[in-house]
Design brief:
It is globular, with a radius of gyration of 17 Å. A 6-stranded mixed sheet has the order 6-7-8-3-9-10, sandwiched between helices. With 244 residues, it is α/β, with parallel strands linked by helices. The chain is built from 10 helices and 10 strands. Strand 9 (205-210) and strand 10 form a beta hairpin. The protein binds adenosine-5'-diphosphate and magnesium ion (MG). Magnesium ion binds next to helix 1.
Length: 244
């Protein structure tokens, strides 16, 4: 397993957000983390990338414990976290946003420029926008830029937090197809989504969180057929997709 999480507990002050979560992700997979608002999806990603330290439990990456590491160490090991809300630099060009994604690698300039070019082949629409400032991009373009910037760290594992949030259906489709393409090119993906229906179409497996616990897990096809899943998540997810 590339990523192994065991008995993860996380707290915000007195509030326990994760009550002992275990999950794993094999190399080359897209695994989705599903669940309602407040279930603990973002917290799980934050503990993996060490934005917050766990109160108990362990995360192992490539066989190695992440105990005691800080976010920079984790990026250097090969984990890139694209947080919720497309936090790009609005006053910088698309190109400079991408270059900043390579900061943790201390790579040489020529190497960074070569990687920018490679990443732009995955995001052809961004190539035409290279000189534009971040704030001038549409929501979908900013989301693509945020993901592309994550790839500039040359991660083995990409953590994506709700990349479809607030985007129009056609743009969402484009983002999902891009994520599938990234995975086919060899980057493992842990995808957080509220829209279970969408996520299960590109993920191989999924875990469903409910108030800080894993409530359901399995391969995507099985979950799509599951009565429990349909009743609790798929029905509403379809309505959400149809109304945005
Ligand atoms: N910074 C914070 N301070 C206090 N509580 C938080 C904070 N962030 C999240 N929480 C709480 O932790 C729980 C899980 O939140 P989160 O991981 O953001 O859920 P999700 O991403 O699934 O919507 C929620 O009850 C939320 O209110
Ligand atoms: Mg969240």
């Amino acid at each position: 397993m590339l990523l192994e999480i065991e008995g993860l507990v996380a707290r915000y002050g007195a509030v326990e957000a994760l009550h002992g979560i275990s999950l794993d992700v094999a190399e080359g997979e897209i695994v989705s983390l599903l669940g309602a608002n407040g279930a603990g999806k973002s917290t799980t990603l934050k503990v993996i990338s060490r934005v917050i330290a766990p109160a108990a439990g362990e995360v192992r990456f490539d066989g190695r414990s992440l105990d005691g590491l800080d976010p920079e160490d984790v990026v250097a090991l090969g984990i890139a976290h694209v947080p919720e809300g497309r936090r790009i630099f609005p006053g910088l060009t698309v190109l400079d946003n991408l270059r900043l994604g390579a900061t943790a690698r201390r790579a040489r300039r020529v190497e960074i420029e070569r990687d920018v070019d490679e990443v732009l082949t995955i995001f052809p629409k961004l190539r035409g926008l290279a000189a534009k400032l971040g704030w001038t991009l549409s929501g979908g373009e900013q989301q693509m830029l945020a993901i592309a910037r994550g790839l500039m760290a040359r991660p083995k594992l990409l953590l994506l937090d709700e990349p479809s949030l607030g985007l129009a259906p056609l743009v969402v489709k484009d983002v999902m197809e891009t994520i599938a393409r990234i995975a086919r090119a060899g980057t493992t993906v842990l995808l957080v989504e509220q829209n279970a229906h969408l996520a299960l179409q590109i993920a191989r497996r999924a875990y469903v969180l409910e108030t800080g616990r894993v409530a359901l897990s399995g391969d995507a096809g099985t979950l799509l057929q599951s009565e429990e899943m349909r009743a609790a998540y798929l029905g509403s997810a379809v309505r959400v997709a149809a109304s945005t």
